[in-house]
Amino acid sequence: MIEILTTGGTIDKVYFDANSAFEIGDSLLPELLAESNIHEGYEMRSLLRKDSLEMTDADRAEVLAAVEGSQSDRILITHGTDTMAQTAQVLKAVTDKTIVLTGAMQPARMRSSDAVFNIGFAWAAVSLLPAGVYIAMNGEVFEAGAVRKNLQAQKFERA
């Protein structure tokens, strides 16, 4: 059984109009999984509903505690892309589980989002990789501590 933890981030953002700020809405993860033809084999739990730039050390400690307390040895975490690498670094303290973080560069609610692909790809990664902490984004897997987000290129790359 794969445990999926949601923390918010762009994947769950809702924009109301061009003049509004965004909000983190209810997770679309069940719909994204279904669209990826994944209907069973997981339990989902919402931890946070935050933009990753607003995540604190206390929030990362909460994510770490949830991972450490999980009965599953395979955990997928949806997370905002801006500080995903920092959270992955904190999770390196867990050495006996396969942990994969993923997210989206565009909200799942937008037609051109990479969310469905990233969720499906992360599902495969968490199912197949050995114990460790990874980021799975846009068709690539990166080990925690060896990845950074390139803001200009809007992609992850090896650090």
TrEMBL record:
Keywords: Membrane, Transmembrane, Transmembrane helix. InterPro entries: Asp/glu_Ase-like_sf (IPR036152), Asparaginase/glutaminase-like (IPR006034), L-asparaginase_N (IPR027474), L-asparaginase_N_sf (IPR037152). The active site is at T10 (o-isoaspartyl threonine intermediate). Residues 2-150 form the L-asparaginase N-terminal domain. GO terms for molecular function: asparaginase activity. Substrate binds at S52, T81, D82. The chain crosses the membrane at residues 115-137. It holds the Pfam family Asparaginase. PANTHER family: 60 KDA LYSOPHOSPHOLIPASE (PTHR11707:SF28), L-ASPARAGINASE (PTHR11707). This is Asparaginase. The lineage of its organism: Bacteria, Pseudomonadati, Pseudomonadota, Gammaproteobacteria, Pseudomonadales.
